């Protein structure tokens, strides 16, 4: 496994509409491993492939319950409710903002073994899924936040 470099806001790859993953092979699975390692190393709860330089539709998520989710070609197929809460992003260090998201989402995705699955998410997981999927469409949370603030790491 290897740590990957995180692209910061201003990097063109973060603005791309990412391409669907066409072929799932050992190389892709190894890249998923590297994405997870990188997310854990930097204390993130989610990481999208463009954040580590690859404009492909793939994200990893672990909201802290020890359950690693790997979503390949994810699509939100249902949404319910709305709520506003604070978000941050490894690509936008030190900035936080309030973002309105759906309260619950159902997402369809492909696993690392090529199986199509459905995931129902609410609360923090739903927020994280929506934040990460936005990355695949070139959208950062600072593009959609109602308000932004700068915070030091201590606060
Ligand atoms: Co992010």
- Classified in CATH, the superfamily is Peptide deformylase
Unreliable stretches: none
Q: Total helix count?
A: 3
What sort of overall outline do the alpha carbons produce when their principal axes are compared?
globular
Question: Can you tell me the CATH topology?
Answer: Peptide Deformylase
CATH class category label: Alpha Beta
In quaternary terms, these chains amount to: single chain
User: Into which percentage range does the β-strand content fall?
Assistant: 25-35%
Report the structural category: alpha+beta
Give the ligands present.
Answer: cobalt (II) ion
Amino-to-carboxy terminus distance: 32 Å
How many beta-strand elements? 8
Write down the secondary-structure element order: HEEEEEEEHHE
Output the keywords:
155 residues; Peptide Deformylase; three-stranded antiparallel β-sheet; 22% helix; 32% strand; binds cobalt (II) ion
Summarize the structure.
The chain is of the alpha+beta class and 155 residues long. It is built from three helices and eight strands.
Task: Provide the fold topology.
Blueprint lengths: L25 H16 L4 E3 L9 E4 L7 E12 L2 E5 L7 E7 L2 E7 L5 E7 H14 L4 H4 L2 E4 L5
The chain binds cobalt (II) ion (CO).
Cobalt (II) ion binds next to helix 2.
